[in-house]
Design goal:
Layout (H helix, E strand, L loop, with lengths): L4 E5 L7 H14 L3 E4 L9 H9 L4 E4 L2 E2 L5 H15 L3 E6 L3 H8 L6 H17 L6 E2 L4 E2 L25 E3 L4 H10 L2 E2 L9 H9 L7 E2 L2 E6 L3 H18 L7 H23 L3 H6 L3 H7 L1 E3 L1 H13 L4 E6 L5 H5 L3
Parallel strand pairs: 1-2, 1-13, 2-3, 3-5, 4-5, 5-8, 8-9, 9-10, 11-12, 11-13
Antiparallel strand pairs: 6-7
Helix pairs in contact: 1-2, 3-5, 5-6, 6-7, 8-9
């Protein structure tokens, strides 16, 4: 049974800088190895890490995830290089393609084919982070210097003025088979959501078997600690229902597709139908106990300790825990 690092997801944690700093200090003091921020169409993933870097000394800092279409690869490189300098090299860069609803509906840019876009983005990022040479790239999506029909012709290759950070780990939140295969070949790790410790091989097995040594697998895991198992299940059910039912359309929902590959195809379709029809309560109720127990850590602490055996038995290298309540932060850490 392999050693699994402990991360804390800051998803859903709102408040001022003092609140964020207090949570980060608690995480560091109780033994968490890292904290992870996210973004959708509100807060950004990078700004909170600057606050956390200033009040902690050893805690790893990760984005799970920063959206690829929200920034040019050079902008992400600048942000990563700045955070690496400010934090003493503690950043892990987690990236994801997001989906058409957010990319086109919020960012106002076209949703491009995720595999090609992510592959080119990674290539540009690596060159920019290495800062060994002037940045030049010619791809089907990204071209640097820009040479489109509306270019001025005055762009010239530049090299970063920041200290290089070529060893910055880059993890990708891939779910589709082709994107996961690209991630295994070109990234440093995978950032899955709705990972199943018992059924992961049905969706990822053959591909992950080809992963090189040191490849990271860092799923975000919903958790709720409490004596009443049913109440704990009900606390995480809405998050599962939201992703399966509402994070995409009936045509394009990567989470529903993943859960279907686990063997829950009928359940995923039913949850989607209810959620997209406006019946969110019905969608939550349609998430079966078996699926909750498969995707989340729920119930008394002793039960969660038993559940962890399955998580530690597979390829997972870091569990990014997303607790239902911050009072659960220290009890969960006690299991590590």
């Amino acid at each position: 049974m392999s050693k699994v690092a402990l991360g804390l997801s800051l998803a859903g944690i709102r408040g001022d800088a003092a609140t964020l700093a207090a949570v980060a200090r608690r995480a560091e003091e109780s033994g968490y190895d890292s904290v992870w921020t996210n973004e959708a169409w509100g807060n950004d993933a990078f700004t909170p890490l600057g606050v956390i870097a200033a009040v902690t000394s050893r805690l790893g800092l990760g984005t799970a995830i920063a959206q690829i279409p929200a920034r040019t690869p050079a902008t992400t490189a600048m942000t990563a290089l700045t955070l690496q300098q400010l934090s003493g090299g503690r950043l892990t860069l987690g990236l994801g393609a997001s989906g058409p609803q957010v990319v086109e509906g919020w960012h106002g840019v076209p949703f491009r084919q995720p595999v090609r876009m992510t592959s080119e983005y990674l290539a540009v990022l690596r060159k920019a982070l290495a800062a060994k040479e002037r940045l030049e790239f010619a791809g089907s999506i990204y071209t640097i210097p820009y040479a489109g029909a509306d270019a001025t012709g005055q762009g010239r290759p530049l090299r970063s003025t920041m200290p290089p950070a070529p060893d910055t780990p880059i993890l990708v939140a891939a779910m589709g088979p082709k994107n996961v295969a690209m991630t295994v070949a070109e990234a440093d790790g995978l950032l899955p959501y709705l990972w199943s410790p018992t059924r992961w091989s049905a969706a990822w097995g053959e591909t992950l078997a080809k992963a090189p040594a040191g490849f990271q697998v860092a799923p975000t895991v919903l958790a709720c600690v409490g004596d009443d198992l049913d109440k704990c299940r009900d606390q995480v059910r809405p998050r599962i229902a939201l992703h399966i039912g509402g994070m995409g359309s009936k045509k394009t929902n990567f989470y529903a597709a993943l859960v279907s590959r686990y063997g829950y195809e009928a359940e995923a379709s039913h949850i989607q139908d209810l959620f997209l029809s406006g019946d969110r309560a019905g969608a939550c109720a349609a998430v079966p106990d078996e699926l909750v127990d498969d995707l989340a850590l729920v119930g008394p602490l002793e039960r969660i300790a038993d559940q962890l055996a399955a998580w530690r038995d597979g390829p997972v290298t870091t569990m990014i825990i997303e607790p239902a309540d911050l009072s659960m932060l220290e009890p969960i850490a006690s299991l590590w």
